[in-house]
Specification:
alpha+beta; 6-stranded antiparallel β-sheet; disordered N terminus
């Protein structure tokens, strides 16, 4: 499995007025979103990740026919995997490859965290 490419950007949520920034300095939260291109069934597929917490990501990807699948990826006991019991078989078969790509991205010192 090879990580083909990724894009990463951060957005700040919260109030940006000077008055609120002084009165409420900890009201912003960094939202981490990125896309990993992972080979699945000999095709490059985009997986869009959005961090909800240190241990949970919202993820979506599409199938050949354009159907978009939404699922959560959760870290349990140091291992990344699907948090739902029911995911499409084509995704379930590649859980370890998705986990490896995510771990590789998160360990990259050049990635925005």
């Amino acid at each position: 499995m090879a990580l083909i490419a990724y894009r990463c950007h951060s957005a700040f949520l919260g109030s940006f007025s000077k008055e609120n920034a002084v009165a409420l300095p900890n009201m912003h939260k960094v939202l981490m979103q990125f896309t990993l291109v992972i080979p699945i069934n000999n095709r490059k597929r985009e997986f869009n990740f959005r961090r909800r917490s240190e241990l949970l990501f919202d993820v979506n990807s599409t199938k050949e026919n354009g159907e978009r699948y939404y699922f959560n990826f959760l870290q349990k006991n140091g291992k990344w995997g699907f948090s739902e019991a029911l995911v499409p078989q084509w995704l379930e078969e590649y859980e370890s490859e998705i986990a490896k790509a995510l771990e590789q991205f998160l360990s990259d010192p050049n990635a925005e965290q």
